[in-house]
Structure formats: structure tokens, C-alpha cells
Design goal:
Elements lengths: L9 H26 L13 H10 L6 E2 L5 H6 L4 H9 L16 E2 L4 E2 L8 H14 L6 E6 L6 H12 L4 E7 L2 E2 L2 E2 L13 H4 L2 E6 L3 H17 L4 E6 L17 H8 L3 H11 L5 H24 L7 H6 L17 E5 H15 L3 E5 L15 H5 L4 E3 L4 H13 L3 E5 L10 H8 L2 H5 L5 E7 L14 H5 L5 E3 L4 H13 L4 E6 L7 E5 L11 E4 L4 E5 L2 H13 L4 E5 L2 E3 L3 H11 L2 E8 L4 H12 L9 E5 L8 H7 L2 H12 L2
Parallel strand pairs: 1-4, 4-5, 5-9, 8-9, 11-12, 11-13, 13-14, 14-16, 15-16, 19-20, 19-22, 22-23
Antiparallel strand pairs: 2-3, 6-7, 10-17, 15-21, 18-20
The structure holds thiamine diphosphate.
The site of thiamine diphosphate has 14 residues, from strand 6.
Length: about 650
């Protein structure tokens, strides 16, 4: 291994050496503790330390790094207190996640680190968001994100590189090519010779370096970062290295040919650098001994503190409370009584525009939302009013964009993402469910985003432009879901969602866009989240519904004429208004839940179960549900109408009344 020290001083070279030695010694200790069953799982980075350490030392302290499971050297080089780090691994309260997540799965804004979620690739979209925020704030900062060679096969990697290239985001995409993804060798993972070859496909610079040579890593990244700060753009950097131990300690290395192992053993990053420093007379045995002694003491002292604590005594209230970032909504009435007649779609547009005026840190992202104004024209004219930086056309990269919203939140920027159709949210599903929804509970970082979901059927648009998919998200702790049924609520709930730092899914029914209008306040206002609305009082039975269901219920009841039913519009689905539901059960004693979403596992199932559990004694009949058929949404209007629940509503009401 050839080391080129360039202008670097002896002192600095010794710092690099100490940086390499610290994670190696921690790992060696962990392997002993593992054998003694004093710690649980361990993902070893032995042999790969030069990448983590070299990169971290090359970046400025307030530049974000998004490390993976083998990057202990990032955490040690950023100076995290070892006792806290060890406590994190032990699952105790001194750690970074209140013992809720394991190993390196945590972030700390104090140290500008965002740890991974197990899914690997999603980190890249988050890095895009942090880098975008740095650009918007004109900070001249680089963000670095780690990938294993295996993880680069994920779509998330591709999407994030593409977005970063298109938006000139200063992200350093690091690929630690260690030859294997768990047991799968590179030859079964990808076809490229070098990751540097991929750069041209994304339109970005890419380099491949010896990841075991700390000086090469440090020097390359130091120079690249200096350049990226002044001319922002992404760079892909492959660091060729090798994993000297198993994927995790239990899984072994049987699948690695012994010759390959001994070839790489000769390239050990620490031993080679140490030898070089000895040969150059920069260090001697006394120095090494003293350094080792000091690090050993740091480790032993920190372990003593970490081992003092045990797993926490559960506090259910605290566990539930932390699902959301603390936020006490102040419902804002409109400043004046001025009103104008607005269609549902105009109300949404109005709320979005006024929120953009109110929050100068709010950024909009979506496909075709800029000059084109979005496929439904909700953001028509917004670019002119707010500029292209805040009204951003995105590539077709839902996952990277949703991931980016978490990155923006980390830097204090609010965002709204327009799904072109709610159906396409599947492409961003993992980011919503596993990153956005869980991050506050895991490490205290909320995702300040509203994802707008043009939803629903009735327009003969077939199975992939018509779905109701609110139930997918209803089941996920950490999200809030609102679903207005009229222009007043559409504006007020959108403004409320954008005001709240927690992540929202905002469902807007496409059929209502242009078919419904009413006079609503001209001024900014918000509607209370979590509060249902009594649309119509009654005594015979209650129809609990939301979205199109409200309109179907009113229409059928008018047609029937002789039924005095109460109609409750939930408006917020998560958290839904249990008090309003209980009150209507107590009043009419007969409950019908109506929704456009398919029946099985729909929101009606949950509400019905809850009523059964909490209000059983008030019921004169079983809770009934009317929903769409348990099929995909059909295209032909006749089939679609048959699929939707409206045609079955009248019979259900009659059945319930006469039960
Ligand atoms: C989406 C997803 N699929 C599968 C896994 C299981 N898994 C965890 S790590 C890993 C291999 C990763 O290999 P690589 O990205 O090369 O990183 P390395 O472990 O070699 O550092 C796999 C398959 C996962 N965590 N996430």
C-alpha cells in the first residue's frame, strides 16, 4: 500500500492513526463481550475503518453524514460520548433512542448524524433532503451518505442519485464495495466493473479509490468536498474494501474463499498505516502503547457506565406520547368575514397558497407541479408567486422525494408532496411507513410533511387511478390522516396539517374537485384536527362516514325521505374522534359505517370494533358496514358503480332500521 502524505503534518497523520485505532479497539472489545453474551448482535466493520474515519475527518463537523451498519468509525470520529453509544447498543435510556431502536439505528442532530433504518437504501433520499436544505439556505455544506455494494441494487439508491443529479445537490454518495452483500458476491449482485462507471449514467462525477488507504480516502474526500461546497453537485465515490468478518457475527464467513481473505488481510487499513508511520519515524512503540492505553481506558470507563443501566421499566404513556412530536393546535379563525364561492379544488389551492405565504420555510414538491401547475392545476401560478426553489418539479422518484422530506425536516424546512394520484404512493410507501412515520418516536426527529393524495373512484379511471388507500396508512403509528368532504374543511384541514410539525396524509377526492362549491372564508383559517363534524342530526340511526360517503349518505337519505338519520363526517381519520362516535352511538343506538374504501380491514372495521368494545350496551342492533367490494377498482362505469357502496346503501339503512 502506497501512502502519499502530501502536505499533511506528523500531528495530523497521528490523528488519523488514532482515528483508525479507536473503532478497531472498540470492535475487538465488542467481539469479546459478544462471546460472553454481554451484548447482542454485532455488525463488524473490521477492515473497512479507513472509509468511515477518513471521510468523517475530511468533512466539517456540521456537515451531515448518514452512516450504515458498519460505520462505527463515523460515530467515533464525530466524538459521540462512548458511554452513550454503548448504552444505545445495550438498549438503555442513556442511549439515543430511549431504548426503542438498536445498534446504529439512530440520529443525533447535535453531531449531525442520521443513522440508517434497516432498509439501507432509503438513507439516500434523506441525504438528498438535507443537501437540498443546505442549498436553499445557501450554506455551502456537503452531505455524505453511505451504501454497501449490495444496497446499491435497491431502487432507492437509483432514485436518490437521479434526484441529486437533476437538482445539483451536494451529496457525496459513498459506496463501500466490500465484495459481498451478506453472502451474495458482487457477481450475483451487479454487472458493473466499477461503481465509477455508473456516474456517467446519472450525469455525475464518480471516482473509485482504495478504501483501505486512509490517506487516499481522506485526501480524495477533502478535495472533493472543498469543490462541492463551491460548485454544488453530487459525486459518487466507490471505496474498494473488504469485510473481514461475517455479515454479522453469527453468520460467519464460510462462503468467502480463504485465499481472498488472506489477500485482503494483507491490505488491512490499520496495520498498513501503522507500518508506514513507523517506517517514516512518525510514531514509535511508546506512542502506540500510550495511545492504546488511553483508548482502552476510554472504552473501559464508558462500558462501566453503560453496563450500570438495565433495560428501562416500560412507561406505556410515554411510549404512546412520543409517537407524535408535541404540538398543541391553536385553531385559527379567519381574520374577517369576507367569503367567496370556491370549488373544492380552489379551496385546496387557496389553503396551499396562504400556507406558502404564512410559512416561508415551506417547500412544495411533486411531478409537474411547477410551470404546468400540477395535473389537476392546484399549483397553477405558484411558480410565479413563490419561485422555482419553493415550487419544485420532481423526477418520477416518489421514494427519494418522500425521503427528502425527512432530510428537509432535519434542517427545519416544511414540505408538501403532491402525489400525482394517491395510487402512486406505493412507490414512496417504505419511506412513509418506516422513515417518516417512525422517526420522531425513534430518535425525536419529526417529519414536517403533508403528502397530498388525490384519491377515489367515480371517474372511470381504472384500477390504478381510483384507489382509496387510506387504510394502508391508518394502521401506521406516527402518521396523521385527514380527509375533508367539502371546500371549507378542505382549506381548513390543509392549513392545519401544514401548521403541524407531524407527518400528514391529506386525502382529496378527485370527484369532488370540480363538482362541489360553497362560500368559504377568503382569509387563512384552520379546522380542528381530530374533530368530526355533525352534518345532519337525527334519531333513527347514525351514518358514520367521510369523503364521498358524506355525499352519498345525504343523497340516499333525501331519496328515502322517511328516515331521520344522523350523519357524522369523521374528517380526521387518524386520530379519529372517538368522543363524537360514542355520542352518536348513545343517541341513536344504531350505527352504519360507510366508506368508499374496500370492506375488509377498512377503517369501518376498526370503528366497529371500537364501538363493540366501548359502547356495546348502547346498541340496539349490530354495527353494520357498507363499503366497496373487495376487488380492485374496475374501469367500465357500470362495473365501477357496482363496485362502489352507494348502490348498497339504501338496503343497508332499511335493514338496520328494521333490525
Ligand atoms: C430492503 C432490505 N432487504 C434486505 C435486507 C437484509 N440485509 C441486511 S444487510 C444485507 C446485505 C447488505 O449488503 P451491502 O449493502 O453490500 O452492505 P454490507 O453488509 O456488505 O456492508 C441484507 C441483504 C435489508 N436490511 N433491507
Amino acid at each position: 500500500m502506497i501512502f502519499n502524505r502530501k502536505q499533511y503534518s506528523d500531528t495530523f497523520l497521528k490523528e488519523l492513526y488514532a482515528g483508525l485505532l479507536r473503532p478497531r479497539m472498540i470492535e475487538e472489545k465488542m467481539l469479546i463481550l459478544l462471546r460472553q453474551s454481554r451484548i447482542s448482535k454485532w455488525f463488524s466493520g473490521i477492515g473497512q475503518e479507513a472509509v468511515s474515519v477518513g471521510l468523517t475527518m475530511a468533512l466539517e463537523e456540521d456537515e451531515y453524514i448518514l452512516p450504515m451498519h458498519r460505520n462505527l468509525g463515523v460515530f467515533t470520529s464525530r466524538g459521540l460520548p462512548l458511554d452513550k453509544l454503548f448504552s444505545q447498543w445495550q438498549g438503555t435510556l442513556r442511549g439515543y433512542t430511549k431504548a426503542r431502536d438498536r445498534s446504529f439505528h439512530f440520529g443525533t442532530n447535535e453531531h449531525h448524524l442520521v443513522g440508517m433504518i434497516s432498509h439501507l437504501g432509503p438513507q439516500n433520499g434523506v441525504a438528498d433532503g438535507i443537501a437540498l436544505a443546505s442549498r436553499l439556505k445557501k450554506e455551502k455544506k456537503v452531505t455524505a451518505v453511505f451504501n454497501g455494494d449490495g444496497g446499491t441494487s435497491e431502487g432507492d439508491f437509483h432514485e436518490a442519485l437521479n434526484v441529486a443529479a437533476v437538482w445539483d445537490l451536494p451529496v457525496l454518495f459513498v459506496v463501500e464495495n466490500n465484495g459481498y452483500g451478506l453472502s451474495t458476491p458482487s457477481s450475483e449482485q451487479f454487472r458493473c466493473e466499477s461503481f465509477a462507471d455508473k456516474g456517467i449514467g446519472y450525469g455525475m462525477d464518480a471516482v473509485s479509490i482504495d478504501g483501505n488507504n486512509i490517506l487516499e480516502v481522506y485526501d480524495t474526500i477533502h478535495l472533493l468536498a472543498e469543490n462541492m461546497r463551491v460548485s454544488p453537485r453530487p459525486v459518487l465515490i466507490e471505496c474498494r474494501t473488504f469485510r473481514m468478518r461475517g455479515h454479522e457475527e453469527a453468520s460467519g464467513t464460510k462462503y468467502v474463499p480463504p485465499a481472498l481473505m488472506s489477500e485482503w488481510a494483507k491490505k488491512d487499513p490499520l496495520e498498513n498505516f501503522e507500518r508506514y508511520l513507523y517506517n517514516e519515524g512518525i510514531i514509535d512503540a511508546d506512542f502506540v502503547e500510550a495511545l492504546r492505553k488511553g483508548i482502552k481506558k476510554e472504552i473501559d470507563d464508558a462500558l462501566e457506565i453503560a453496563f450500570r443501566e438495565t433495560h428501562p421499566i416500560p412507561d406505556t404513556e410515554a411510549e404512546i406520547k412520543d409517537v407524535y412530536a408535541p404540538f398543541q393546535q391553536t385553531v385559527m379563525p379567519p381574520a374577517s368575514e369576507k367569503e367567496s364561492r370556491k370549488r373544492f379544488i380552489d379551496a385546496i389551492s387557496d389553503g396551499l397558497r396562504q400556507s406558502m405565504e404564512r410559512f416561508d420555510n415551506l417547500v412544495l414538491m411533486g411531478q409537474d407541479i411547477a410551470e404546468y401547475g400540477g395535473v389537476f392545476k392546484i399549483t397553477d401560478g405558484f411558480v410565479k408567486a413563490f419561485g422555482k426553489e419553493r415550487v419544485r418539479n420532481t423526477p418520477l422518484c416518489e421514494s427519494a422525494i418522500v425521503g427528502a422530506t425527512l432530510g428537509l425536516s432535519i434542517k427545519g424546512i416544511k414540505s408538501m408532496v403532491e402525489m400525482q394520484f394517491a395510487d402512486f404512493v406505493t412507490e414512496g410507501f417504505n419511506q412513509i411507513i418506516n422513515n417518516v412515520a417512525k422517526s420522531h418516536w425513534r430518535w425525536g426527529q419529526s417529519s414536517d410533511v403533508v403528502i397530498r393524495m388525490p384519491t377515489g373512484a367515480g371517474t372511470a379511471a381504472g384500477p390504478f387511478h381510483s384507489q382509496s388507500n387510506e387504510a394502508w396508512f391508518f394502521h401506521t403509528p406516527g402518521l396523521k390522516i385527514v380527509y375533508p368532504s367539502n371546500p371549507y374543511d378542505a382549506k381548513g384541514l390543509l392549513c392545519a396539517a401544514l401548521d403541524d410539525p407531524n407527518p400528514y396524509l391529506y386525502f382529496e377526492h378527485k370527484f369532488l374537485y370540480r363538482s362541489l362549491s360553497e362560500a368559504i372564508p377568503d382569509d387563512y383559517y384552520t379546522v380542528e384536527v381530530g374533530k368530526a363534524r355533525m352534518v345532519k342530526e337525527g334519531s333513527d340511526l347514525s351514518i358514520i362516514t367521510y369523503g364521498m360517503g358524506v355525499h352519498w349518505a345525504i343523497e340516499i337519505l333525501e331519496e328515502m325521505g322517511n328516515v331521520n338519520a344522523e350523519v357524522l363526517d369523521l374528517r380526521t381519520l387518524l386520530p379519529w374522534d372517538q368522543a363524537a362516535v360514542a355520542a352518536t352511538v348513545k343517541k341513536t343506538n344504531r350505527i352504519l359505517i360507510l366508506h368508499e374504501d374496500t370492506l375488509t380491514g377498512g377503517i369501518g372495521a376498526e370503528i366497529s370494533a371500537w364501538i363493540n368494545e366501548h359502547c356495546f350496551q348502547y346498541l340496539d342492533a349490530p354495527v353494520m358496514r357498507v363499503a366497496s367490494l373487495d376487488t380492485p377498482v374496475p374501469f367500465a362505469p357500470t362495473l365501477e358503480q357496482n363496485f362502489l357502496p352507494k348502490g348498497r346503501l339504501r338496503a343497508a339503512i332499511e335493514k338496520l332500521i328494521t333490525y
